Amino acid sequence: MQIKFKMQNQNENEKKNLEKKVTKNLIKDYSNLLNENSFKDFSIFVENESNPFEIKVHKSILSLRSPFFNKFLREQNETDKIFLNQFNKKEMESILKYIYYGNISFENQENLIQLLEISIYFKLDLLKEIIQKKF
């Protein structure tokens, strides 16, 4: 994510520092949005059908950042939940951090492969490209 400012009489370092500050604030705000329960209007259930783990999220964020969720939410606009039993809590939380504020961590090769599969499933092409470059 990059923010550009048009300012007169400021050197490039000052502009870059301000851009970094704005970006950090956006990341912090989206991180807080994901971690707090305010205004969440959608639930993702993961792990298994008999004892699913619920993660509450925002439809608007999901639909903006993931073509998969955009399509699903447009087609199922009355629903407030989805069951994704093929994913576990850790995988889903990791991918949501990426969806919300672009943060992704790679623990090991196995984790990389799982995240690649998830990025393909959710049609997150930039994440897919990032992971492929890690191989």
Automatic annotation (TrEMBL):
Q: Residue ranges of the BTB domain? A: 40-108
**Matches recorded under Pfam families:** BTB
Query: Which SUPFAM superfamilies is this protein grouped with?
Result: POZ domain
Q: Name the InterPro entries for this protein.
A: BTB-POZ/Galectin-3-binding (IPR051481), BTB/POZ_dom (IPR000210), SKP1/BTB/POZ_sf (IPR011333)
Entry-linked SMART domains: BTB
Which Gene3D superfamilies does UniProt cross-reference here?
Potassium Channel Kv1.1, Chain A
| PANTHER family listed in its UniProt record | BTB DOMAIN-CONTAINING PROTEIN-RELATED, HL07962P-RELATED
Q: From the Swiss-Prot or TrEMBL record, give the protein name.
A: Speckle-type poz protein
Q: Which organism is it from?
A: Anaeramoeba ignava (Anaerobic marine amoeba)
Q: Taxonomy-wise, where does this protein's organism fall, top ranks first? A: Eukaryota, Metamonada, Anaeramoebidae, Anaeramoeba
